[in-house]
Amino acid sequence: MDRALAKRKFFEKVLSxxxxxxxxxxxxxxxxxxxxxxxxxxxxxxxxxxxxxxxxDILSIHFEPYRLDFRHRPPTAEEVLQGIWxxxxxxxxxxxxxxxxxxxxxIGANVREEHQEGVRRTRLRKCxxxxxxxxxxYYDPPVVRELLRAAFWKxxxxxxxxxxxxxxxGQLAEExxxxxxxxxxxxxxxxxxxxxxxxxFVLGLSVLGRSRxxxxxxxxxxxxxxxxxxxxxxxxxxxLDQLQMGLILGLAPLxxxxxxxxxxxxxxxxxxxxxxxxxxxxxxxxxxxxRLPLTAWAYGNYSRPEEMLDYHRSERTAQHDFIQEQRRxxxxxxxxxxxxxxxxxxxxxxxxNAALQALAWRAKRHRFGFxxxxxxxxxxxxxxxxxxxxxxxxxxGVLEALYEDMSTWLPRLRLEKEGLGERVRETRFRLARAx
Length: 435
Description:
This protein is mainly alpha-helical. It has helices at 3-15, 17-56, 77-81, 93-96, 103-110, 113-122, 142-158, 163-175, 180-199, 240-245, 276-290, 295-299, 315-335, 345-360, 371-375, 378-390, 396-406, 410-434, and strands at 70-73, 87-90, 125-126, 137-138, 215-217, 220-226, 232-237. Helix 5 (103-110) packs antiparallel against helix 6 (113-122).
């Protein structure tokens, strides 16, 4: 596509007055579908991560996407003049809910008093030098922590909850020298929660109109379940917390779950039907759904009124064009280095995608799920990258040669990509404050 035409197309769709208004109308149209998606996906994600929090000694407010939430405020007059149409500020979870600051407070607020000591005593803890016993804790290097905290969950959004997600997690885990059982546990825990959400009715998890009434066998709720090994089983449970962190045979390997009573260990404050952790999830999902129409202004942000009339004057359009030009340069560079025996259009496109991934995944401006790749050494990232693409049919030798040649300019382009993303935003807020 002609470069000027591509710039105008982006401007008309995203940054012009008509583009913002049209996007707002489309968001209203899809809001019922988005609402259903949010209740099904976000609830399952958040509740799975809340269980992982206790099992892996990572505070829930460090998990992503669990901790990703924002509050909106209208802009000031000075901000509007700088093209700031909506201000989104990240939620301070500890300020909002003091019990999120540490595990003792979390357990004290959400677990029944008679079960608190048992949970504190039996939950797995991260090994800390000169504090922990070797046989009562686990080793947690930075890459492993990032995989558990965010990267595995991002991969789930990129891929379906099936063998492709499991394989992608396994590739990363192998580079990080991570226990295979941990990968299988993450997979099994989330897919079990998905199954229970649709095939049973669990308070705090299930969705009216989508979830079935629970089938009961001998006092246990049941749901079909496919293990990480591909074995069909019947999941048996009575409470939400069992799904989140219970030691369920076939779901959690030994050491990756807590022995749970048949009744819920969650505390229910007087007059409340849910424990505080579930109320937080429900409140968060409601807030995200209510803010959906604001997405139009989020995309159109940092465009001054006069810039919204002409794409030639739009700094955001120029920013987007720079990123696209960077992409075109990389694609052209790769196309000229694919050997003749590999140079059919499909293969060339695959090599181009591989190079763009090598550039982008360690330089994402929106970092959810990508900090694990930053935490890797360059050698680890290269090893994972070559394996990832060679298993999709590309030549390992060609990939090695491409990465070797790219290494001369990759660091510079990554820095440019990161800096460009924040430049317009920071400039507009600085000018608004100075006005």
